[in-house]
Amino acid sequence: MTTPAPHGVFAYPTVTVGLTSYCSREIVSRAIASALTQDWPSIELLIVDDCSPDDSAAVIEQAITGAPNARLIRHATNGGPGAARATILAAAKGEFITFFDDDDESRPERVRLQYEALQAYETATGVQLVACYASGSRRYPNGYELNVVAIGSRPIVPQGVAVADYLLFNDRREGVFYGGGTPTSALMARRSTFEAVGGFDANLRRVEDVDFAIRLAIAGGHFIGCPETLYLQHASKGSDKTPLMNLQAELRLIDKHADYLRSKGRYGYARDWFKIRYYHFTGQSLQFVLLLAYFLLRFPVAGVKHLLRSAPKRVFHENSIKRKAL
């Protein structure tokens, strides 16, 4: 779908902004406003309320009153983010699709800059499978802010199975910039790119963004990013964001990609690492220490490298939150 233009004038392709909502009555209007004030002239806004038990849907209806380019789709049952994003892909009319989250607000130029970056990379390289991510910042309730620099926004652009290896077991190629990973809330891609790898897994209630990126990577996709800070995420908690739910989804992810992981000799590695993270996040110190020790005995070189890459940043991040809260 493309907005018509006079002969010789650029015709703007329609960009579908997909926004998922669940129990977001206090925050979703802000996200909707940032979508409706994008400076791209041809926007379709699709909002999926994932069967919120509160009045989030009514709040959304009010927020899009008078916006003919916005539409609310209500799920009859709660399916989680994967199902909500799959619904958006099925209903989208845009040639390009980007995703906003209900706890985010995006700058007016976000859609335009991501589109321009995507087009420029496709023109320069001829690559057909490209995902473009926005840089942003995450603000926690106590005021602490974390800069999230987009994957691929600095040389060298991650591509192919190198991204799958990074997401599944933290393998990093020299000089490649992985940035803030592959969150769907920062993503834009062509409709054809989503279709080429099967869109989002509606059965995953968490990490559906990681799963999509893994499949895109295995298919040979390239992952680029905009260096500009284009969104602010107001970090929120919810019943669908617990450590246990995250672990369950991560283990399903590992099993889904078990053949690929076994081909790399990393199936057990990936499962144990996600469990180690879970024990850390839930304060289960004994289980954490025992599994970490076993993990390092099995994978001494790769395990130590992984710890050195991730542990200092995690400790700094957690301590920063604590200091800000004092």
Keywords:
Spore Coat Polysaccharide Biosynthesis Protein SpsA, Chain A, globular, 18% strand, nine-stranded mixed β-sheet, 44% helix, 326 residues, alpha/beta, 12 helices, single chain
Question: What's the layout of helices and strands?
Answer:
Elements: E1 15-21, H1 28-36, E2 43-49, H2 56-63, E3 70-74, H3 81-91, E4 96-101, E5 104-106, H4 110-125, E6 130-139, E7 145-148, H5 161-169, E8 187-190, H6 191-196, H7 208-218, E9 222-234, H8 243-256, H9 258-263, H10 267-281, H11 285-298, H12 300-325
Parallel strand pairs: 1-2, 1-4, 2-3, 6-9
Antiparallel strand pairs: 4-8, 5-9, 6-7, 6-8
Brief description of this entry?
With 326 residues, this protein is of the alpha/beta class. 44% of the residues lie in helices and 18% in strands. The protein is globular.
What does this structure look like?
The protein is of the alpha/beta class and 326 residues long. It has 2 domains: 220 residues, Spore Coat Polysaccharide Biosynthesis Protein SpsA, Chain A, CATH 3.90.550; 83 residues. Helices cover 44% and strands 18% of the residues. It has 12 helices and 9 strands. Strands 1, 2, 3, 4, 5, 6, 7, 8 and 9 form a 9-stranded mixed beta sheet that branches. Helix 1 links the parallel strand 1 and strand 2. Helix 1 packs parallel to helix 2, helix 8 runs antiparallel to helix 10 and helix 11 packs antiparallel against helix 12. The N and C termini lie far apart (51 Å).
